[in-house]
Amino acid sequence: MDDCGDLTVIDAGCGAGLVAVAALAAGARHVVAQDYDAKALADTAANVTRVLGPQARARLTLWEADWSQLRPMNAELLAVNPPQRPAALLPAVPRNQRHLHDGGGPDGLAAIRLVVSHTGAARVRTTAAAALRFDTLVFPGWSAPRCVAMTELPYDPAWRALVPDLFGPVGIWELHRERPMPVRSRPPSVSAFGEA
């Protein structure tokens, strides 16, 4: 996230706010942390304040919404680490963790399709396990996915059917909107949590 200085960034599905913290630390003008879980948003706000202080928290908006509601939030960059386990792998995930991994659909890419089809952002950055063939996706109105970083990581045991040795490549991919939408100078307040 070191290239997001002076940008408006959406952390889609923010969870505990790792992307929000990284973007704000790199100088993002403003970050919109989006999640459907109010506790995740509260955790994000607390983590931003704890790690970066109240000045960074003032550049953070919390938005309780799901990915089908992303369109109103225009930004230069949307970053997401979506659920990407193919549905066939979910039975191998412990029952109390399945809600964190459900949403990948048959091929593991349904969540990223949802995000790209609903965002107003000019650029989307996402993680994707190489076993999923993210590079073959086509999104009308968007550039072809481009891998900007690749690393080898251990996989959770639930991936064994696709990644037998449970160690393999994971990429960070970017897509660019062919005609960027205009970006608001500051996102509207959309949070029940307030603005700092």
UniProtKB/TrEMBL annotation:
Entry-linked Gene3D superfamilies: Vaccinia Virus protein VP39 (3.40.50.150)
GO MF term list: methyltransferase activity
Keyword annotations: Methyltransferase, Transferase
GO-annotated biological processes: methylation
Keyword Mitochondrion: no
Keyword Iron among record annotations: no
Protein name per the record: Methyltransferase
Lineage, broadest ranks: Bacteria, Bacillati, Actinomycetota, Actinomycetes, Streptosporangiales
